[in-house]
Amino acid sequence: MADSAAVAGLLWDEWLPLSVRKLVAAELPGGADDARRLAVWLAGVHDIGKATPAFACQVEPLAQVMRAAGLEMRSQRAMGADRKLAPHGLAGQVLLGEWLEERYGWTVAQTGQFTVAVGGHHGIPPEHGQITALDRHPQLLRTPGGSQTLWRRVQHELLDACAAEFGVHDRLGAWRSVKLPQRVQVVLTALVIVSDWVASNPELFPYFPEDIPRSNEERIAAAWQGLNLPGAWQAAEPTADVKELFASRFALPPGAKVRPVQEAAVELARAMDEPGLLVIEAPMGEGKTEAALAAAEVLAARSGAAGCSSLCRRWPRATPCSPASWTGSTGFPHRMGRAIRFCWPTPSPP
Length: 350
Known about the structure:
Layout: H1 2-14, H2 18-25, H3 31-45, H4 53-56, H5 60-68, H6 76-79, H7 88-104, H8 108-119, H9 128-135, H10 148-165, H11 172-175, H12 182-199, H13 216-227, H14 242-250, H15 260-271, H16 288-303, H17 323-327, H18 332-343
Helix pairs in contact: 1-3, 1-12, 2-3, 3-12, 7-8, 8-12, 15-16, 16-18
């Protein structure tokens, strides 16, 4: 939980585009600070659903240790097919929502827009029918009887600790009135997913960290260095006229002239108040590729976006990310590669 939260913080600070961070911040009363706290907290609590009988029963020797501590649970075999009603993402969404209701007075309608990032952290948000089915099997979340109270206490202690550690305890009251648009819910879920992937990599986060004497900060820093993600592209809006822009980005031969469609694309991009759909239609050979890349650079600089995706029906045999495709002397990958190397000189594109 702590590793995922730490990774989310680094992704937020070093990798996530400014446009995405602004998208989340715009919906929260505390702006950018709230947005980062929320992202880190959701990544930190995303696996709370593993603190349930339905999940813990899977490894019998470890389940026995938990039983000895008072956390009773049936065996995996005894639970049977019912256990599939409580995958840990869904269980986590339910537990986090319940905790927000009990501790902070949230309503069910208020919790779902936040807890969906926990429920969907394996790629698919739970459907209403799945939540209803789990509600009919509370024994999957807490074993009835004498240990039921202990299960609840353990779950809530973990969530209380996360709220304090990740700095949201004093913010959850203010967030109760927030209405997160679906696009923000999707972005936060995506960040939790990536954080989980990275933190689950045993090469970056060994299962037995005590084998290497390091502080927690040193361990996180070593994992981030080992991950070696390229930094976010921070485009600066080109100030040169269109002819100079194309000459610097695409190494045009002497005497080459910018085509009217290319000039129009750049000027339209410069005139747009916010990113939108810009369609370039022209015959083959008019320079649509260069026009699109130049317009994308302008729009990225104006919006804080940090990526450019290209779909082409006729790629060469080498894949777009292979060395051969970036070093060829002709064709689409070569032209795109030149532009990328100019705008993003280090590190090289992956």
